[in-house]
Amino acid sequence: MKTKTTSLEISKKLMGLGVKLESDFVWCMQLPFDKEYLEDLTMMVKYEPSLIGMDFSMYKDYPSFYAYTAEEIGGMLPSELRKDLYLNMVKCDGWWECSYDNEQGEARELEEGDTMVDAMAEMLIWLIEEKLINVNQINN
What is the DSSP code (8-state) at residue 77? Predict the structure, then answer.
């Protein structure tokens, strides 16, 4: 599942920028289990209690960050900027590119990532940092 959600580092960046939209997954830094039960305390935990068999509220006191899927990040990205730049995704040899291209197909802004979702999230981070998108729009 780690390749289908934002990396821990990017999840931390998004939270630091104020993105608080709930996700189906979280990165939980410490879990309320014995160490022997877990191979690694930094692991992906399904947000829905039915899959893990417990109420997610028990994690509220543990450091955690939403781990967004490509579908969730895609819902946050505008399909176009300034009426003349259009969202584009390209799979390269070993990485992904997310860009806003003009009508001639020239990338005006390009972000890369090891996975599709990380490339998309890097673009979202750039949009927020450049104030081209408001975090409040995302969180509503």
Answer: S
Supply 25's token pair.
């997954």
CA dist., res. 94 & res. 80, Å (int): 26
Strand order in the sheet with 96-101: 80-81, 85-91, 96-101, 107-113
Higher pLDDT, 45 or 97: 97
Interval 112-127: pLDDT, tens: 999 999 999 999 999 9
In the chain, the amino acid numbered 37 is Y
pLDDT value of position 54: 33
Whole-model pTM: value is: 0.78
Amino acid code (one letter) for 23: S
Break the chain down into helix, strand, coil percent, rounded to 5: 35, 25, 40
